[in-house]
Amino acid sequence: MSMTKGAVLRRFALIISACTVLLFDCFAHAQQMDIAVGDSAVLSSNYNSSSQAYLPPAEKGGAYPSLSADVIFKNRIGFSGEVAVRAKQGVYNNYQPFRPILYDFNLMFAPRFGEKITAEFMAGVGGESIRFYNPNGICYYSTGCVTHVSSNHFLGHVGGGVRYYFWRSFFVRPEAHLYLIHNNTQFNSGYIGRLGASIGYTFGPR
Fold first, then answer.
1. What is 31-203's CATH number, 3.30.70.1290, 3.40.50.620, 2.70.98.10, 2.40.160.20?
2. Left (φ > 0), alpha (ψ -120 to 50) or beta: where does 61 sit?
């Protein structure tokens, strides 16, 4: 059963409202809240077997801008979330444009090492949505025309980084992430890495 645009917008507004209330509740009990933007690259091994006629490509290449946020409590344990999107469409096996979107939600430990340095260790779950684009569109009587289809996968995530506070509450953070993607049949491996750096700001005492 298809939903009208108004129903989709109402559901989206309800989700945003619920997330906002939860965020403010967490912030009320948290010692600090951080937000950061960054850029990164995705890495994966190449397929090294010639036993298959169809060789799925490696999921790597391209720049992945990211947005992350977290809340940390007085025991230095908290929660974090992040989304990273490939900035430009890739070309899947030299014929179809595609764009992966990675997102994750984590339990986080952020010990301090002196006044200017904080480490981050996190583990959690999330998902990957791979958009495959058709510039001509695909039309159905019930849903209308769409220009892409999505392949969605559950994933596990571990990651870490080191914050350096270079001026007041502003920090720079080199970081590394590892994803285990369930049933990632479109690519040669269910394991991918993401390396990058972010710049962010801390609200509240550090």
1. 2.40.160.20
2. left
